[in-house]
Amino acid sequence: MADPKGFMTTPREDWPRRPVEERVRDWDEVYVPGALLPIINKQADRCMDCGIPFCHEACPLGNLIPEWNDLVARADWRAASDRLHATNNFPEFTGRLCPAPCEAGCVLAINQPAVTIKNVECAIADRAWEEGFTPPRPPERLSGKTVAVIGSGPTGLAAAQQLTRAGHTVAVYERDDRIGGLMRYGIPEFKMEKRHLERRIEQMRTEGTRFRTSTTVGRDIGAAELRARYDAVVIATGATAWRELPVPGRDLAGIHQAMEYLPLANRVCEGDLETSPLSAAGKHVVIVGGGDTGADCLGTAVREGAASVTQLDIYAQPGTERDEEADPWPTYPKLYRLSAAHEEARHLRSAPAADADARLFAASTLRFTGDAAGHVRSLHLVGVDAGRRPLPGTERALPVDLVLLALGFSGPDRHDGLVDQLGLELQPPGTIARDADFATNVPGVFAAGDAARGQSLIVWAIAEGRAVAAAVDRRLSDGTTRLPAPIGPFDRPMRA
């Protein structure tokens, strides 16, 4: 450790966000450009270099956090980049999008604010690109084996990059017109500018990975035909089958899934559309669902100029301190967190019905009512207790012109025919079944990421991509592999 007393003398300081009034007028990332590097060396100095670093266990990638913290504190950015990329293909993604379970597992977090691990990671990744520490790494020789990866989200891209670097010829199939999966069309620009994604894709192209966009496997190309064409197939399509809200009035116009709404806003940022056909401009918006996708809808609606935005969360408002009985250290605690979108909504008072920010906690949707034209005009809700039971006398109605359902996902979308054409076995709640080697019941077909694990975090997605790549390489290389496998298919986050 560079400074043995750093954790005692230096307070935590996070990457500052731009003023709300400024950032809601554009789609740029919310953080102050260039404000991270001046503070990050001292923040890295706060790392205690623990004998047993629980941040390792909290991160499924097994990131070597104390090592690159020490290197950043000493301003050895090249070595820090090497250590970071040794376990993570895309740290510029995780440094912006991951909720940082590693910080929850930080030993310092037992009684102090955790080390700003996520900020340090992002600083290393950005510096690595600026200084040219991340050149393409094409394989020295080709194996003669071919692999198809279906899906270009973080799991598919990580698997493809690892397998390409191992010498296999890899083609990534993506049903959308651009590579990136939900990172492209689900994550708003203000959370991660797509230039970071484009940079990695170009690196992968240079290394030899091939990309096939606007190609739905099961429809544009038969699943069996694809299986016959390649030595191995990796299914990394994600869990895109969204959950529904079966309440009266759901069929009214103006009620949409979050993943019908967010891609259109992203296409505006890409220049495909001048305005979104589902724009929230001038509308009263209610978002049903209290997770990150709901927060993404909130920040998007605020930027589009909504008249009001309210977010419903069926859970009670959590506290600001860890509940040591329910969520003991080093597990990831359920806390009241103020995302950039919620900070914006609170500052702008975008939700008159809510108390502090845009959220109404412990609220359950009863029904929707509409006007004579069949368009939604009111959302009727009720307060609930910890068991989600309605509380008498708490029913109320919110005016609404646009409802966005952000209720999560249950498994892969089966409408394209991929699952049925291959005859893949499924497990509850509809995810693809696999064995301890990530292999499905179909020989030569592997499944990884949310399609098999279920909806999870980006760090788990990348870890799955790296691990399935090792399993595929082992099958194609007579039982041996040099690729790392950070997790197994049945590993789960630490829980109490």
UniProtKB/TrEMBL annotation:
Domain 4Fe-4S ferredoxin-type: 36-69
PANTHER family membership: GLUTAMATE SYNTHASE [NADPH] SMALL CHAIN
Protein name in UniProt: Glutamate synthase subunit beta
Keywords from the UniProt entry: Amino-acid biosynthesis, Glutamate biosynthesis, Oxidoreductase
KW Oxidoreductase (keyword) present: yes
InterPro entries on file: 4Fe4S_Fe-S-bd (IPR017896), DPD_II (IPR028261), FAD/NAD-bd_sf (IPR036188), FAD/NAD-binding_dom (IPR023753), Glut_synth_ssu1 (IPR006005), Glutamate_Synthase (IPR051394), Helical_ferredxn (IPR009051)
Record pathway: Amino-acid biosynthesis
Oxidoreductase is among the record's keywords: yes
